[in-house]
Specification:
Layout (H helix, E strand, L loop, with lengths): L4 H4 L4 H7 L4 E6 L2 E14 L27 E6 L3 E8 L6 E12 L1 H7 L13 H8 L15 E4 L10 E4 L16 E4 L12
Antiparallel strand pairs: 1-2, 1-6, 2-5, 2-8, 3-4, 4-5, 7-8
This protein binds a DNA duplex through β3, β4, β5 and α4.
Length: 201
Amino acid sequence: MILSPSFYRQEDVVQIARSLLGKVLVTKVEGSYTSGIIVETEAYEGITDKASHAFGGRRTSRTEIMYENGGVAYVYLCYGIHHLFNVITHTKGVPHAVLIRAIEPLKGLEIMLKRRHKLLLKPTLTNGPGVLSQALGITTKLNGKSLQGADLFIEDIGISLLPENIVATTRVGVAYAGKDALLPYRFYIQGNAFVGKAKGL
DNA sequence: CAAACGATTTTCT
DNA sequence: GAAAATCGTTTGG
């Protein structure tokens, strides 16, 4: 079943980040469906989190979407090269977000391989926030889109994880955030081959 | 209006 | 292991 708006509007963004593990992110871009099981996430706790774009309540044209009601996508370009996909959570006015860092390919494998210019299925196909967006065809065109749409949603396919299989640790690439960089806001499925290994492990 | 800077990935040494 | 690639957003003049 597709995750409902009420799922995204829970108050605890860290709990949502944990809950998204094992769910399936589905996109339909240029007529083709692609999907993958979410195996790694990071929580960005709004105005109190120095690593968040909305830290201190900053509102700019880019971050405005973060203040929307939970259940929309926040996609932005990083390093001029990579599109990073986030889920906006909590209610209107509270800029919480969850970054999807890695997925395990599920459907549309051929299309994902083609988009990534690969021939074989390897973890590098979708094991980072930039590359999974490329594989799923996610670009800034999806910024602000509802996660209830026919071409972008997250569904629960009945995967349940044991607590001991969920690892909580520090986030990646946010050293500039000072003590907030030490918060255990990153979650991943223990032992999954598609969890990012590029950094910090 | 000009300049600096990334919630990263790939490639070269 | 180190460095380049690359551009929209943000910040300062």
